[in-house]
Amino acid sequence: MxxxxxxxxxxxxxxxxxxxxxxxxxxxxxxxxxYSIAIExxxxxxHAFDLxxxxxxxxxxxxWYFPGQDTYGLLTKSRRMVDSANQLMDGDxxxxxxxxxxxxxxxxxxxxxxxxxxxxxxxxNEFLFPDQMMSIMVAITxxxxxxxxxxxxxxxxxxxxxxxxxxxEQVGASQHYVDLALKxxxxxxxxxxxxxxxxxxxxxxxxxxxxxxxxxxxxxxxVYNRSANIPYNEPSGxxxxxxxxxxxEAMLQWKGDGLGEGSNFLxxxxxxxxx
Length: 275
Ligand SMILES: O=C(O)CCC(=O)C(=O)O
Prior knowledge:
By secondary structure, the protein is an alpha+beta fold.
């Protein structure tokens, strides 16, 4: 959607529930472009690594810190993404980009994500203000119950941070608190069509099941932070670098570069933090 703006009602929904779904956030043309780059771009492929769940099932993901002048970077920096993050996060310092990842859950082998809060990871980076952090996920292929769509516990962001431990190569929230949350709040399967977006708070409890279907589930997740929310244990430095927003049309109309090494990809072998 060109010149997309959240309505006051959508903002209230997000604050109440900890997430918000926006249908047709991207056009078919925009999603097709993201999909073909994901398939064809050598840099993206070269930097993809496998993340194992507790049963050894794998999600393929590429994660980068710097949104450049390539199609993915231009989407992450687009007005519709940056202005939405600005409307939804607490605080008033400039919006910055922490990192983005392309998630590829392949048919039959795509791994699960355990129940967690993203802030369960980011707390370790010593960000102090979870209300100043959020993610925007864009579905590149359809996401449904069969191919392991995201599940959220509606309103669970209001619980504050829950203890997390290690779960496979991931971090998982205390099962006791997850069980209590499930007893108290509604579990929602976030089924999306290509181009739909999910906005979610850094403290919402979420997970996804393994992809046991015949179809891939691919998505882009970009994470935003405010420049005043300094992480005292996060060496990349990007999460406090203000973003310069570009027009929504840029990802289709600008002659973007390909994804380059300048995007600063995470190398799994070398880096500890996975998110
Ligand atoms: O997309 C998924 O299946 C889960 C991703 C997730 O939980 C995350 O990135 O925090």
